[in-house]
Amino acid sequence: MGSAVIDLTPTPLKEWAIRRFGTGDKVVLVGSVLVGVLVLAALAGAVARRRLAVGAAILVALVGIAVAAVLTRAETGALDLLPSLVAAVTGPLALVLLARADRAAQEARRAGRGEDGRRALLLTAAVLGALAVAGGAAGRFVSSLRLRPEDVTLPRPADPAPPLPRGLDDQVPGITPFRTPTRDFYRVDTRLDVPVVGTDDWTLTIDGDVDRKVTLSFDDLLGMPMIERDITLTCVSNSVGGPYVGAARWLGVPLRDVLDRAGIDTTKADQILSTDVDGMTISTPLALATDGRDAMLAVGMNGKALPREHGFPVRMVIPGLYGFISATKWVTRLTLTTYAAQDAYWTERGWATDAPIKISARIDTPRALAKVDAGDVVIGGVAWAQERGGVAGVQVRIDGGAWVDAQLGPSGGDDYWRQWFYRWEAGSGSHRIAVRARSGDGEPQTAVRAEPFPNGASGLHELLVQVG
Ligand SMILES: Nc1nc2c(c(=O)[nH]1)N[C@H]1C(S)=C(S)[C@@H](COP(=O)(O)O)O[C@H]1N2
Ligand SMILES: [Mo]
């Protein structure tokens, strides 16, 4: 229902809501849908006091909207209609019971026993309410019986990552940790809730322009040799200096090995169209995904099975490409096809199909508009340049002066971000700090500003601090 509302909402309104509510947008959306349903249900109740059939018809019409919403979703089966059908029976039934109790209450009032009638009506409402709550809880309980991330034993990588060096976490207060703790890892997806997928009923199908269609179970995947890599994921929606970037250690099967099982026809296909458990699609340029970079079907994140929020049981991770064209969570299908033949979710919405992550540096400390004491101030942050030889240098500029070299933290590999810091003798007053990075293959970060749409933000992170 919520997803259908999202689709029907005009883009400007949607963008306003995202700007206004940020990651709270989903709470607002679900809340508005709930309030809307409550208001309409109350209307049905008020009408039902006069004409029960009309009230019930309003409820059934509401259910009809829900059914329509379900049917507009890709890859929904007959089973997905079950909740609506149950509502189509239980809703009017509850209404009939309430209307009957209401009528009895009115008769009791006329007979001078108003108190009894009201009590009976309240009791009916309370029992129905309790049943609804119990039904919801039972539903949650049943879905929690699915196999959980905690129950998965991950295999050892055939090709492990070297130990991650100690970062600057302890040396530079306020700097982003060298490895993002899983619970702090940013989350960006179109989902309103987190899909609950069990490993027992999960499969991955590779089809389209392949020699043979292949379907793998979770155990099949776990049986394949795994690689372990430190990779920094970045969202195309991240603005310069923004929070939608995180670095983790991923464990997974090389994408290439999985594709090879099906045998890909590179003379035809130019994109991998990956589909998630709900039918949401993400497109990845085939040439980039198979150019030797560490593209993988990941099952582990920071030493544990993927959490549900980050794609349990299996997601794609491809270094160097923004998440919206590479990092499909809850992935169930890889279809080898062409951009001409099929459009993915964000392609339909005008976003780019080829979107390498742009070189970027971020100032973590001091914060924008922070008040700091004059004297020795440590400026610090992170920078990333995945699939471009990593970050080779970071420079800082104070008040539009000359660019000066910052010191780099240790390297976690070319696909991983790098911490940096600069010791600054700060005089009192208001100062402007800017930062820029340079990649290992010699490309400087551009100062040309661009919005995230359609292929990622660019420009320099620059902020003001008050030294006093
Ligand atoms: N199934 C699915 N996978 C998805 C998305 C999505 O909406 N649905 N969003 C993508 C985007 S835009 C990004 S940036 C990354 C974010 O991954 P994370 O939430 O684990 O940080 O997931 C990608 N994978
Ligand atoms: Mo993203």
TrEMBL record:
The chain crosses the membrane at residues 27-45, 52-72, 78-99, 120-142. One of its GO terms (molecular function) is molybdopterin cofactor binding. It comes from the Bacteria. Keywords: Membrane, Transmembrane, Transmembrane helix. SUPFAM superfamilies: E set domains (SSF81296), Oxidoreductase molybdopterin-binding domain (SSF56524). Residues 193-345 form the Oxidoreductase molybdopterin-binding domain. Residues 152-173 are annotated as: Disordered. One of its GO terms (biological process) is sulfur compound metabolic process. This is Putative sulfite oxidase. It comes from Nocardioides simplex (Arthrobacter simplex).
